[in-house]
Amino acid sequence: MHLSKQIKQKNILPKYNIVEKKNCILHFGIGNFHRAHQALYVHELLEQNKDLSIIGVNLRSNKTKEKLEKQDYLYSLVEISDDQKKITIINSIKEILFGLTEKNKIKNLISSPEIKLITLTVTEKGYHFDENKNLLLSDEIINDLKDEQLLTVIGHLSYGLIQRFKKNKEKITILSCDNLSENGNILKNLLKSFIEKIEPDCLEWFKTHVHFPLSMVDGIVPNNNKTSDFFDLSYKDNALVVTEPYREWYIQSQDSQLKKILDNDNINYVDDVKFYENIKLKILNASHSAIAYIGHLLGYVYVHEAINDNICYNFISNFLDKEVIPTLPQKNGFDLEGYKNKVLKRFKNSFIEDKLLRIAMDGSLKLPIRIIETLKINTENTNYINFIISAWLIFIEDRLVLDINALQDPNNELFMSFYNENKDNYFLKILDLNKIFNIEDNKKKNLKTTVSNNISFIKKNSLRHLMNDIINQ
């Protein structure tokens, strides 16, 4: 039986009919995170009888559209931990478009006065920027400049905004919800660079009428293959999403139109999102990366397995207490110690089944922001950070020994060339890469010495042995 009929019979349909709601939000990147996060916030507004809906765009795959279309875009969100479970049936997404085949419809939506807000969750790779966060003229961006079959969110947004300028010149807000520091400013700069190559006449309007608030989102949403039966649902849902019962959304904006659209008490409108973003990056994301490399090398598959190992828990807790929290600013009475404890508890959630290898991907993009920035400003001993960097470098070797494609990193070919050239000291060349390790010469010299000693010790003894030594110092 069709999902909507099953849940209608059980009288558990949402209160609203999404088909009757006006178009308002266009979202690029309808993945599990969006469906567990922004779509839930919008669902809560719809339950309060707000008149809005989400139209989604996916650029790479049509699978989510195919699954949700069969269920009239209804799906179950399972918020679960070891001590609580909540099931919500969500219908805030009205439709999903496929970027490769529906570029004109997407362009018309971006230019439509109905659309007041565009949001994005496309991950770092989707932005096509170089190490200086400027537009990278990748093959996909060069393709999009020809305005044929569009491949990137930058291309879709640029052509849509140009048409909006030509048709009505109405104000619009574009809100990046990706895990990027200064996400709104980066996106604005990338779009400006693209637009000035094809339609520079609209740049003055772009500067004054297209707004890019900074935002920070938080919530762990794994690629989970759990079925309806696993959660004892009384109906069959082939598109359910599993998440932890924790979410945050901070937006740096006091714009009245945006606040009217996203008028949800669970969204925090603040004057400085960077404070909250910095805490998340340096505490949650940094420890996530650390546990990914350490846990994998210890033989674990999931985050909860690794963090439930006492030596891993103590190592990460000490790393945060001794080398991270002392470098973070205090503001608004924010409880850094309390946040740290919440993060470690969240990692222990056995239902999330977040794979260490997923988090370990793209280390050369993640570590500079999550770990190395803290190394740069730390004036005290950094034994924990040095160990985490050592674990990452051993992880690189662990992957490259299998196959170049086993290391999912934008620099995997470069790393492979270093490894083939000198299997014993390949890591010294990686440490010399300023685009990753942009630190002062003296710190880099000390780091090289410490990492060399760490790797030598680990290979002779064990990772666990060195972790134990560091904890007991």
Short synopsis of the structure:
By secondary structure, the chain is of the alpha/beta class. Helices cover 49% and strands 11% of the residues.
How would you describe the overall organization of this protein?
Helix 11 (273-297) runs parallel beside helix 14, helix 11 (273-297) crosses helix 17 (383-402) and helix 17 (383-402) packs across helix 20. This protein has helices at 3-9, 32-36, 38-47, 63-69, 103-111, 139-145, 153-167, 183-198, 203-209, 256-261, 273-297, 303-307, 310-324, 336-347, 356-360, 363-377, 383-402, 412-421, 426-431, 441-460, 463-471; strands at residues 25-28, 54-58, 75-80, 85-90, 93-98, 117-120, 172-176, 210-211, 214-218, 241-243, 248-252, 268-270. It is an alpha/beta fold and 473 residues long. The N and C termini lie far apart (62 Å). A six-stranded parallel sheet has the order 5-2-1-6-7-8, sandwiched between helices. Helix 10 links the parallel strand 11 and strand 12 (268-270). It folds into two domains: 3-271, Rossmann fold, CATH 3.40.50; 275-471, N-(1-d-carboxylethyl)-l-norvaline Dehydrogenase, domain 2 (Orthogonal Bundle).
Q: Would you identify the CATH architecture of the largest domain?
A: 3-Layer(aba) Sandwich
Describe the sheet with the most strands.
6 strands, parallel
Spatial sequence of strands, sheet with the most strands: 5-2-1-6-7-8
Count of DSSP H/I helices: 21
The proportion of residues in beta strands is 5-15%
CATH domain class name of the largest domain: Alpha Beta
Low-confidence region ranges: none
**What's the CATH topology name of the largest domain?**
Rossmann fold
Category by helix and strand content: alpha/beta
Q: How far is the first residue's CA from the last residue's CA?
A: 62 Å
Q: What is the count of distinct domains? A: 2
- The gyration radius over C-alpha positions equals 23 Å
Mean pLDDT: 94
Give the overall silhouette.
globular
The CATH H-level superfamily of the largest domain is NAD(P)-binding Rossmann-like Domain
Quantity of strands, as a count: 12
Q: What helical percentage do the residues reach?
A: 40-55%
